[in-house]
Structures
1.
Amino acid sequence: MKENNTEFLPSEVLIIPDETKKIGDEEYSWNEKIKKVVIPYGVTEIGERAFWNCTSLISVEIPDSVSKIGASAFDRCISLTSVKIPDSVTEIGQCAFNCCESLTSVEIPDSVSKIDEGAFSVCTSLTSVKIPDSVTEIDGGVFSECTSLTSVEIPDGVTKIGELAFWRCTSLTSVKIPDSVSKIDADAFNCCESLTSVEIPDSVTEIGEHAFEGCEALSMSTKEKLKLMGYIF
């Protein structure tokens, strides 16, 4: 089987049986041989840790019958380079793509209303992400330690940026926070050492401890505004 000029041996391709409705918890975890997974239409859920630590997995086809990607479903799939999440998915579980170190791009559809804690943490090759309008909260640690992330689009409608949400995103240079946000939790942008500017709207009434600690490159004007809002560096 060949895909994008990559040749897969039959033994490296996992084709999930057509009658499957749910891929069970830990069903294919620790399988270090498979490089490609084909999930058939009809599967509605990918269970917790379903492909956890499948370290050779490069490609996965998720059909538009899937509504939920479980916690740690693709955690530590360190060779996975890209993933297209279909617009049938409404929930991406905790640490679903944690430590997918080769993941350079991800498409999150407007159908997704909840991205759980740490869903894309330590995706160290991810350079940009667009959060869909359907998301109202950015949970804790969702993009923490995405050290190549340079830009992020936070949509109108988000009311809260969770604890450690962008912690140690060391390449992030600027963030525009929409005027729907009322709370920025503790350590949300801690150690974003390349961050030079943050547009903080008047709607923000609470900024947690250490939210901008270690953001040494922040402009003086941004720091002054933060101080006026009661934030202490």
2.
Amino acid sequence: MHKGGLLVSDEIDNNFHPSLLKKLISLFQNPKVSKANAQLLFTSHDTNLMDRDCMRDQFYFAEKTDLLDTKILVVQFLMVKLFILLIFYKKGL
């Protein structure tokens, strides 16, 4: 972490206790700890990792389309779209 680099883990939630995993993620986000801007890239099915302490612009969803392509969605933009839809819904539009 002190030299930077990239840690990649598939299904990271299968390898760590949830509390330990949140601590690990926070270490990568802390500029005092990750002085060389180390990066963490992982897949997970645990939506609890996306709590308020995490930066939502760092989360992406991947889904298969009908044509079997993979579509990548940024969570931050999904939240904005959901908020706009909620406004329209409340107005009866």
3.
Amino acid sequence: MNANLKTSNIKKYLCLIIPALLIMSCETNINEQTIWINSAKVDCVGVGPMQCFNVKNSESEDWTNFYQEIKGFNFEPGYIYKLKVSVDTLDRSNLPADKSFLEYKLIEILSKDTDPFLPLNDIWMITQLKGIDNLKDIALKSIPTIELNTNTRSIMGSNGCNRFRGKLETLKEGKISFGPLMGTKKLCAEMTTPNNFNSALSQVKYYKHNGLELLFFDRDNELLIGLKKVD
């Protein structure tokens, strides 16, 4: 009788403890994260060429490529998202070689804000340049132009003689600066404008944007470069 009672109690105990252990086991494979999603996908290479999210785990971090989808999340370009997601660790033994063992699912959209830097994404032509009195005297093909891409934090263009490209080193509200530029090194008949442009661009610290006009200033708020959006 006592043996049967003990056996019955053990069974009841197991019925209670096993589901709890299973729940705990499942929960150890899932955690929640807060991530930020940038306003546009970028070209990247995973298994092959693809489009990736740009993500970061805090507002102070730099954007990095994110090669996976987030289940339940419908992305709309032009907005910066702050998301709460669950991250599930999958059983690797049942996964294809090219599939990640982490699975992301949307829990909640914490915020959805228009990207304030999106209007800067365009091709811009120089209208004013420090050290050059009259750009109208310069042939159109020799007018410097720049193309900004705030999603990839990059700049490219022409100084009026040579093509160049580089990185946006700083991009915050009202602040912008450029890292070292790489480009061609040919000599042109007129080098004053290209040289002045290169010098001015290296000194840029602040910007003002108003519609079709973009202005770059140095650390003393002296105007270095004025630009207009190219149609």
